[in-house]
Sequence to fold (137 residues):
Amino acid sequence: MKVRSRDERARPACQLEDVIARSRAAQACYEAEGSQLRYDRAAQAVAWAIMEPARNAALAELAVETTGLGNVDDKIIKNHRKTLGLMRDIMDAVTYGVMSDDPETGITEIARPLGVVGAIVHRPTRWRPPRTISSTR
Fold:
């Protein structure tokens, strides 16, 4: 087994930190001119990009390859349906600005982006059936 150096072990963390830093910088630029319409259009653009057939297939293949779960054809259908469902669910949702204002209590609810969202996906080892060892006696 090859032992990796400290620099080699640190490389993925540095790459992740770089992605997060770039994401936060992009978010700051985006928020500077934020509006409900701008965020709605961004969500729609992402949805259409995910549903574009070639990209949907590539994402499905990546998901199956990365996780070892499911199959590509089912993932393509799932990506399409879940994206349409999510867009339907958030179509009229207030996701930026004043959500509600109650003059009696003086409480105003304001929505704004929280920040960079990321996830770590567990990659299970693929189960392999045991090799059959046959012996004749």
